[in-house]
Specification:
Length: 858
C-alpha cells in the first residue's frame, strides 16, 4: 500500500478509496466505470469504491478509518484504504466516521490486502478480521459497540461509623430532636423520667405535638404527667433512624460493606440498585459514586499459582539462544521464524516462557496461539502464573462485550501477552514483537469451509503469522512434536529454521531429569478376532486398563471420530475397499446404498465378500464415545468414565469443566476424540489406548496418513508424563501401514521422509498449492449442474492462461460429506503453483466457497 495512516497527507486527495462491507460481486461496477485494472490483487480491485471527502473530514480522514457511506439505496460501513486526488467516476460523499480514531493501522491494511490476494478472498472479509467486535453490525443504523459503563460505589466511612453518620442524615424534625434530647439526657445523667417543667426546660416550648408523636410510637410514656423513657439504646437508635428517614439506607450500606466496601452498582442485590439511593448517600458523604468503564475481563476472579523459571537443559538453552539471537537487524525472514520440534514432554512450553520473558524485557508484546479453546485455560494458567497481571485471552467463546474490551485493552497497551485461538492473531498490538504458535501441526489453525454462511476467507493462521514475521517484522516461534509437512518443507526451503528437543524431561527438585517416551505396543485386531475376542478392546488393552484402575491411576481412550461409519473394511485381512480407477478409499453412502469415490465420482456396489481374501466378515468402521463408555462400564463395573467430544463439551466452559474434572481425578478413564491429543499435560495418566487407529489412516484424503501419524504420536504423548511412567496400546487392522509403524517407533522423521517423497512424486502439496471450490445448493441436481458449468469455465481459463505451468483440475465430484445442513455439495480441486491466478479468471457466484490451501479435501 502506498498510503500511510495517521496523517491526512496520504494522497492529499479529495477522494477516498473505500472497501465496503457488503458481498460485492465481480460484475458490480461504480457508475459506468469498467472493472478497474492495476497492480492490486483482483479481490481488492473489485471491492474498492471511490467516495468524495466532505469538507469537515478533509483534515481528519486517513487510511484505516471506518466510515459510513451510501451504497445504492443502503448505508453501509467501509474502511478507507487510501486517499486519492482523482476518481474515475462521479462520487457520493462519505457520511461520517464510525470512530474518531482510525481503527486499522497501515500494516493491518497491507496484511489484509495480502490475504485477499493469497486466498482469493473478498477484501472486506479480510479487513473485518482486524475490526473490533461489534463495530460492523448488520444493522448499519445501530450504534457501534462501545465500552460498558457502570456506576462504581465505594464506602466513604469505616463500618463502625455507618450508623453514627446515618443518625446525622435525613430529616431533623421536632420528634427527632426531642427523642435525641431525651436520649442524650439519659446517657449523660442516667435519668429515665422528667416532669413537665423539666421537659420544657430541655426541649423548649411547643414540645407537645412532638411528644405525642413519640408516645404514639411507644417511645415514651406517661405523657399526662411525668414522662418516662426507658427503651433500650438499640431500640432508640432504630427509632431515630426511622424518624429521620435514613434507616432505609442502612441495608444498602451494609450490603456494600459485605462486598468489601466497594462494588459495581449492577452487582448489588436488585433492591439496592436504585441510583437515587446512592446519589442521596453521596450527598451525605457516605459513599463515593463514580461512573466509569467497567472492564468485561474474561479472567476476572481467576487465581493462578505463581511459577518461576526453571533451569533449562542444554537443548532448551540452545533453542532459546537461537531465537533471541535471530531477527536482530536482519532483513532475512528466515532469521525470524523457527520451528521448535520437540517430543511430547520435552519442555517446549518452558522455552516459550523464557522467550516471552526476554520479549517483555525489551518492551514488546506477544501473541500466543493455541489451536482450540479447550487448551486456552491450561495455557493461560501457565503464562499468567509466570507473568501475573500481564495476560489476557481472546477466542470465540467470549461474549462480544468481552472481546471488545480485550481488543481495546490490547490496543491501549494494557495487555502484554494475548493467548487465544487463531482470531487472536489479528489483535491490534502496537508493540508486537513475538508470535508463538503452539501445537503447530493442528488443523484448527485453518478457518473451516465446512459450514454454509459465515466466513468467506478461509485463512490459515500459521501462514498469516509467517507473513507477519516477514512484513512487520516480528519473531515467530512455532512448536510441535509432529510439525506439519508444509512447515518442514519450508525448513528445507530455508524460510523457517528448525530447532530440536529430542528428549523427554521430568521435573526433579529444582531441576529436570531426562525421561523415556512411553513404549507403544501394537495390537493386530485381526488376530484378536481369530482368537474369539469380539470386544472393541484388545486383551492387552483390557489388562492395562485393569492394572491402572487397581493402582488408582488414570487412562485415556482415544477415538478418531473423523470418518465414523464411512469406510468399509474386511475384519479378517484388513483390506479396505478402494476405487479401481484412482486407488482412493471408497466412502459408503447409506442414502444410495453404494460405495463412492470422492475423487473421480465413480460408484460401486457394496461387496458381500472381501475381494482380497474372500472372507464375509466385512463391516463399516467407526465407534462413538458413548459406545466406548458403555462398553467400559460393562467390563469394569463402577469405573468412573468421562467423555470429551463435541456433544459432551457443549455450552460455554464445557471444555474447561471436563479438563478440570479429570485433572482432579473425578474420573478414572477419559474417552475422547481429537481433543485429548492436543497438548494436555495430565501427569496421573499411565495408560493410553487408541481404539481404532485405522479410521484416520483410511480416509480418502491425501493428508490422511499425515494426520493419523500426528494424532497417534500426540495421543501417545499423554501417557507417562510423570515418574509413574506409562504405556500405550494402538489397536489396528492394518499394522503394516507406514504411518502406524512410524507412530509405534516414535519416529516421525522417518514418516515425513517417506510421505514427502510420495507427495513429490504426485506433485501434491507442499510441492504445489491446492484450491478447493465447493458449490452448495438445496437441490442435488442443481449442485451438479453448477459444478459442471464451473469445470468448463476453469478448463477454458486454463487454456487461455499462458503461464507455462501444468495446472491440474480434479472433479467435479461430491466431497466426503456430500450433504451438510440440508445442502448438497460438489467440489472441484485445482492443483497449481498459484491456483488463485486461475480462479480469479472465472466468475465465482455466491453459491461457491473458495478454499485455498485446504487442510482436508473430505
Amino acid at each position: 500500500m502506498a498510503s500511510s495512516n495517521g496523517s491526512p497527507r496520504d494522497g492529499q486527495g479529495r477522494f477516498a478509496e473505500v472497501a465496503v462491507f457488503v458481498p460485492v460481486r465481480p460484475h458490480w461496477h461504480q457508475g459506468k466505470a469498467e472493472s478497474p485494472s492495476g497492480e492490486q490483487p483482483l479481490a481488492e480491485r473489485l471491492q474498492l469504491f471511490h467516495y468524495g471527502i466532505p469538507d469537515d473530514l478533509q483534515s481528519r480522514l486517513v487510511s484505516g478509518h471506518v466510515v459510513r457511506v451510501p451504497f445504492g439505496r443502503r448505508t453501509v460501513n467501509g474502511v478507507v484504504m487510501r486517499r486519492s486526488s482523482t476518481s474515475p467516476v462521479a462520487t457520493r460523499l462519505i457520511l461520517d466516521l464510525i470512530q474518531d480514531k482510525p481503527v486499522l493501522g497501515q500494516h493491518q491494511l497491507e496484511l489484509a490486502g495480502w490475504m485477499a490476494a493469497f486466498y482469493g478472498a473478498p477484501l472486506s472479509s479480510c479487513l473485518s478480521l482486524f475490526v473490533p467486535p461489534g463495530l460492523l453490525g448488520r444493522n448499519q443504523d445501530r450504534k457501534p459497540m462501545g465500552p460498558r459503563m457502570d456506576w462504581y460505589l465505594q464506602l466513604a466511612v469505616e463500618d463502625e461509623d455507618l450508623v453514627p453518620r446515618l443518625l446525622q442524615a435525613g430529616r431533623a424534625t421536632r420528634p427527632v430532636r426531642l427523642l435525641e434530647t431525651l436520649d442524650g439526657l439519659r446517657q449523660a445523667t442516667g435519668r429515665t423520667e422528667l416532669s413537665r417543667t423539666e421537659l420544657q426546660e430541655v426541649a423548649g416550648k411547643g414540645y407537645g405535638p412532638a411528644l405525642k408523636a413519640l408516645a404514639d410510637q411507644g417511645l415514651v410514656g406517661g405523657v399526662g404527667g411525668t414522662v418516662h423513657f426507658t427503651l433500650e439504646p438499640a431500640v432508640v437508635v432504630q427509632a431515630r433512624l426511622a424518624l429521620r428517614g435514613s434507616g432505609r439506607w442502612l441495608l444498602p450500606l451494609q450490603a456494600l460493606s459485605g462486598m468489601g466496601g466497594s462494588a459495581w452498582k449492577s452487582d448489588l442485590p436488585g433492591e439496592f440498585r436504585s441510583l437515587e439511593i446512592w446519589r442521596r448517600l453521596q450527598e451525605y458523604r457516605l459513599v463515593f459514586l463514580d461512573r466509569r468503564r467497567r472492564p468485561r475481563d474474561p479472567l476476572a476472579g481467576a487465581a493462578y499459582p505463581r511459577t518461576r523459571a526453571v533451569p533449562l537443559t542444554g537443548e532448551q538453552g540452545a533453542a532459546l539462544q537461537a531465537v533471541l539471537a535471530g531477527g536482530n537487524g536482519s532483513n532475512d525472514a528466515s532469521h525470524r521464524a523457527w520451528m521448535l520440534q520437540g517430543v511430547t514432554g520435552s519442555g517446549k512450553t518452558e522455552v516459550y516462557l523464557q522467550v516471552l520473558e526476554a520479549c517483555l524485557d525489551r518492551g514488546h508484546q506477544a501473541i500466543v496461539l493455541v489451536p482450540e479453546i479447550a487448551l486456552t485455560p491450561q495455557t493461560v494458567s501457565r503464562f499468567a502464573g509466570r507473568f501475573p497481571g500481564r495476560v489476557s485471552v481472546m477466542h470465540s467463546g467470549l461474549t462480544p462485550g468481552q472481546r471488545f474490551d480485550v481488543w481495546t485493552d490490547v490496543l491501549d497497551g494494557k495487555v502484554d501477552i494475548l493467548v487465544g485461538a487463531r482470531s487472536a492473531l489479528f489483535a491490534p498490538m502496537p508493540q508486537l514483537g513475538l508470535i508463538v504458535v503452539d501445537e503447530e501441526h493442528d488443523d484448527s489453525y485453518k478457518q473451516s469451509a465446512e459450514l454454509w454462511g459465515g466466513a468467506t476467507v478461509f485463512y490459515d493462521a500459521r501462514r498469516v503469522a509467517l507473513q507477519m514475521s516477514k512484513s512487520l517484522p516480528v519473531r515467530l516461534l512455532m512448536g510441535s512434536a509432529t510439525p506439519s509437512l508444509q512447515t518442514l518443507h519450508r525448513v528445507k526451503q530455508g524460510t523457517v529454521r528448525l530447532l530440536r528437543l529430542p528428549h523427554r524431561i521430568h521435573a526433579a527438585g529444582r531441576g529436570v531429569v531426562r525421561a523415556e517416551l512411553p513404549p507403544i505396543e501394537l495390537v493386530d485386531m485381526r488376530q484378536e478376532l481369530m482368537a474369539g475376542n469380539l470386544s472393541v478392546f484388545s486383551r492387552l488393552l483390557q489388562d492395562q486398563l485393569a492394572t491402572a484402575l487397581e493402582r488408582h491411576e488414570q487412562a485415556i481412550l482415544f477415538i478418531n471420530r473423523r470418518g465414523t461409519r464411512t469406510f468399509v473394511m474386511c475384519r479378517m485381512c484388513g483390506h479396505v475397499m478402494e476405487c479401481t480407477a484412482c486407488t482412493n478409499v471408497l466412502t459408503w453412502h447409506s442414502d444410495i446404498e453404494r460405495l463412492q469415490c470422492h475423487t473421480c465420482g465413480r460408484e460401486f456396489p457394496n461387496p458381500s465378500v472381501c475381494p482380497a481374501c474372500g472372507d464375509r466378515r466385512i463391516r463399516y468402521f467407526g465407534s462413538g464415545t458413548q459406545r466406548i463408555a458403555a462398553d467400559l462400564d460393562k467390563r469394569f463395573p463402577g469405573v468412573r468414565v468421562l467423555r470429551w467430544d463435541a456433544d459432551s463439551a457443549g455450552g460455554q466452559g464445557g471444555h474447561t469443566r471436563i479438563m478440570e474434572s479429570f485433572q482432579a481425578h473425578e474420573a478414572d478413564v477419559l474417552v475422547g476424540t481429537q481433543m485429548i491429543a492436543k497438548g494436555l499435560d495430565l501427569p496421573k495418566v499411565t495408560v493410553v489406548g487408541a481404539v481404532a487407529a485405522d479410521v484416520g489412516v483410511n480416509l480418502p484424503d491425501f493428508r490422511a496418513a499425515e494426520r493419523a501419524c500426528q494424532l497417534l504420536i500426540q495421543v501417545a504423548g499423554r501417557a507417562g508424563r510423570s515418574e509413574r511412567g506409562g504405556r500405550v496400546v494402538i489397536q489396528t487392522y492394518n499394522p503394516d501401514h507406514y504411518a502406524i509403524r512410524a507412530a509405534v517407533r516414535h519416529d516421525y522423521d522417518a514418516f515425513c521422509r517417506a510421505e514427502l517423497e510420495f507427495r513429490q512424486q504426485l506433485r501434491y502439496p507442499p510441492y504445489r498449492r491446492l484450491a478447493r471450490l465447493i458449490v452448495w445448493d438445496r437441490k442435488q441436481e442443481q449442485a451438479r449442474r453448477h459444478a459442471a458449468t464451473m469445470m468448463t469455465a476453469l478448463e477454458d481459463a486454463r487454456m487461455s492462461l499462458d503461464s507455462g505451468e501444468a495446472i491440474e483440475l480434479i472433479g467435479p465430484a461430491p466431497p466426503f460429506h456430500a450433504q451438510l445442513q440440508s445442502w448438497w455439495r460438489m467440489q472441484i480441486l485445482v492443483l497449481a503453483e498459484d491456483p488463485v491466478r486461475l480462479i480469479e479468471r472465472v466468475p465465482v457466484g455466491p453459491a461457491w466457497r473458495v478454499d485455498v490451501d485446504p487442510v482436508s479435501t473430505l
